[in-house]
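Q: My collaborator sent me two sequences in one message, no labels, and asked for predicted structures for both. Can we handle them in order? The first one she listed is below.
A: Yes, handling them in the order given. First sequence, followed by its structure tokens:
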Amino acid sequence: MTRTSRPTTGVRRNAHVGRGVRVKAFQAVVVVLGVFMVGTGLAEVAIGPSLLPGTPAAAPTLDSNYRFFAAMWLAMGVAMLSVARRVRESTTVLRFVCAAVFVGGLARVVSWVAEGTPHPMMLVLLAIEFTVPPVLVLWQRRWAA
């Protein structure tokens, strides 16, 4: 091994360590998001739409539909948590969850147009639904299998 090859090896090793830190950061973000999704999904299934700000009592059909979709949100959170352990291999699951959240944001826009401006908290969620999923997909793409 020549002297000039040693620094290259060290640089590669350091790049690998840096990549590991970035993967760990991604995993941490995925876990936080997954725990948030599971937690809010459980709360929404258990308590119902009365959790929403400014929500009057919901009719039984609306309440039933709300809790059903809350369970879907919870399930997507579980799927997100499954991604954390195998971020390189879980491209399909991550992209599916991210696409579902993004499309959910589009549904909020449809509601906004049809029913009027929602509570400001819903607008914050809308901004998150349009930014976080694409960022996660692009971030994970860097080391996907």
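Q: And the one she listed second?
A: Here it is, processed independently of the first:
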Amino acid sequence: MAFKKMSFLCFLVIILSFLKPTSETHHHLRHRLSAAAPPRISSNPATSSRFQPHISSSVLFHSTLSLPTTSHAAASGGGEWSLLQESIGVSAMHMQLLHNNKVVIFDRTDFGPSNLTLPPGQKCRNNDEALKTDCTAHSLLYDVASNTYRPLMVQTDVWCSSGAVNSNGTLIQTGGYHSGDRKIRIFEPCDDFNCDWVELNLNLTVPRWYASDQILPDNRVIVVETTDPKEENNLYPFLHLLPDGNLFVFANQRSVILDFKNNKIIREFPVIPGEKRTYPATGSSVMLPVKLTGDGFPAVEIMVCGGARGGAYIKATQGKYVKASKSCGRIRVTDKDPNWEMEDMPMGRVMPDMLLLPTGDVIILNGASKGTAGWECADDPVLNPLIYHPDEPEKEKRFSVLNPTTIPRMYHSSAILLPDGRVLVGGSNPHVRYNFTGVKYPTDLRLYGSDSIRRSQPQSGSGSSQRFREVQRALPFYMHHMRDPQ
């Protein structure tokens, strides 16, 4: 199989089971093993002949980028950026959309004060690694509808943590750094001002850093961390829950299907050609839209884009920035004999964010064209988002280049899709501390987004136009159920 000549790789899997389910996900280099355990944890070793897993005041801007929803042969230059907030005081390292149209935003806590003060009467943090007493917020709750926000109290360091959202909408965030590396945090959405981060008394059994989390069909959360003592590029693996209930796991250049119920690898895929793809050679991935035709089990296709060459991180720490990967790979994991279908983006990109749009297309944005993830480890930001049209039969017509932003989105930046079709973009801090002057890429506390669905005027008769109309019809129903799950 594909891994016979590859170096040893292990991954640690912990499955968390909560009385009240919850979940979310993702950054820096170093590796330790972590696990998690509210009321119940199952932790067992899974083995394979070759793949051996061990399961045991700053500025915030919110802009809107209007993405074209015309035919997928659309000309380059679409999209519109607009500002929502000038400052939220926290760089958006992580963002998570909640079911009530609010977004939890947070950053690490070990760099010193943020630019967002805690409200009067709020107890300050006294367990900080950088300050004896920290009375600033490192998290906030952003209300999309009103374009307002309020500070939240995250109690321990969430740097390099991961999480997922469970079926009742609760965010579970696991692991982190320093005093937060074994923590389990939950955030239950509310429509008043009473909800905030809660840290459970029960900790993870081992530290967890650079893991990835995924909600499972039974509402438990699986936490996966991948390691390889001979290879640096294995952190923050890509996870995709498949329609058959098994888990697709991708790290570095390798991928498998994990049967987590029976603790075994049931399939290994060919190595993806080209560069490394996971942290610090950070690429991104999506599961392309699954088409339910009624003709048996649906085909499932995973797409991975961007990354960096092996050794690029070490060179970046020495000030030598290697060109990022231009390639994307698609693999149909349900095929009998699957192989990667490769194609090139218009430009190379490391640290991209990939999101599925309601039209079925993919937006790729943020990141740099040289270097890797990590402190001061990248150069030459990529300012133009891309739209990828997966159903376009001609490869040369699948990518459309959108209008550029003026804001570099480097290390510790993020992007999420909002219920109304906009894309919210924020963060960027390639420095150990917040640094706004005298550096090439200042810390950015602004938040941007995109108005791709509602404000675009699709051409009649195109495939994207039909998808646009279907989304328009579905949005009122979708938004109603976002507000009222009952």
